[in-house]
Amino acid sequence: MLLLVLSSYVFAASGDEAPVTIGQEAEALLKWKSSLDNNSQTLLSSLWVGSNHCNWPGITCDDNGSITNLSLGNYGLQGTLHNMNFLSFPHLLELHFRNNSFYGEIPSHIGNLSKLTFLDLSYNNLSGNIPFEICLLTSLNLISLQINRLSGSIPPEIGRLSSVSQIYFSDNYLNGSIPVSIGMMRSVGALDFSNNYLTGPIPTSIGNLSNLVYLYLYSNNLFGSISSEIGQLRSLTDLQLVDNNLTGVIPTSIGNLTNLYRLKLYNNSLSGSIPASLGHLQSFCIP
Q1: Per-residue exposure over 9-22, b if at least 16 CB sit within 10 Å of its own CB, e if not
Q2: What is the pLDDT of residue 287?
Q3: In Å, how far from its chain's centre is CA 128?
Q4: pTM above threshold 0.85
Q5: E runs forming strands in 42-135
Q6: 71 with 98: CB under 8 angstroms?
Q7: Residue 276: φ, ψ to 5°
Q8: End-to-end distance of the chain based on CA atoms, in angstroms?
Q9: What's the pLDDT tens digit per position in 101-155?
Q10: Is the four-CA dihedral 216, 218, 223, 224 of positive or negative sign?
């Protein structure tokens, strides 16, 4: 009986987390600011004045005073994200940190931002792997990690981001294969994995992405044939597979892509003739 009572108590204690207060959000921001380099601290100290953090530049709050938007892009900030306590921002919807000088790894506790819909960490110097925990952000509509120094493979669970409409991982050092789970991202309209070191074939599951408009996989080390499933992408307007190691013939199913206006396949090892079905592409533009 004693063991049962103690077990129940531990479950209750761990399950009932204290809500984050308005003051804790401001405190978390100031603690993170103090971890940045001196110039960044000076800049933010000159901007973040007054007792109401909702009035600070780059910060938007809801009617209850909780932070919903952190927009600190193009501020020239330098430091890491390690000391940003993401657990202190349970209502955060948008995180704009584009075009700064953030370095180090993307911390795994970013996965605590369960309501996040917009994540832009592009144009920084972030390194290390893309943490698996990013795949827990299932409310995301946009995720941009392009133009960093990220390495390792794309998390196999990336398909959990089924609400994402735009995903940009270009210009990094990513390797490994494109996860098969990519086919679960049925809301995606723009997918850019270009300028990396990705290998393996283009997964046939990519044919499930019926809303895909832009597909950029150029400048990787992809090999194998272009699967006929590519012809299922009826919304596609721009397909770029340049500078890979693709072989085989151009599938005739490409002729099904009636909205396609740009197709770039050069610098591969493709063989055979150009399919006559390309003549069906009424929107097609030859540069």
Answers
A1: eeeeeeeeeeebee
A2: 54
A3: 15
A4: yes
A5: 59-61, 67-71, 78-79, 94-96, 101-105, 118-120, 125-128
A6: no
A7: -60, -25
A8: 78
A9: 999 999 999 999 999 999 999 999 999 999 999 999 999 999 999 999 999 999 9
A10: positive
> Hunting for tokens 């089924």 — which residue is that?
162
Which tokens belong to 268?
Answer: 């591969």
Q: What are the Cα distances from residue 191, in Å, to 90, 123, 216?
A: 28, 17, 6
Do 191 and 215 meet the contact criterion of CB atoms below 8 Å apart?
yes
Which helix (H) or strand (E) element contains residue 215? Answer: strand 214-216
For the record, the structure tokens of 128 come out as 């290390």
Enter the tokens of residue 197.
């070191």
- Encoded amino acid at 157, one letter: E
Question: What are the pLDDT digits (tens) for 24-76?
Answer: 999 999 999 999 999 999 999 999 999 899 999 999 999 999 999 999 999 99
Element (DSSP H or E) covering residue 216: strand 214-216
Tokens of 212: 């895909």
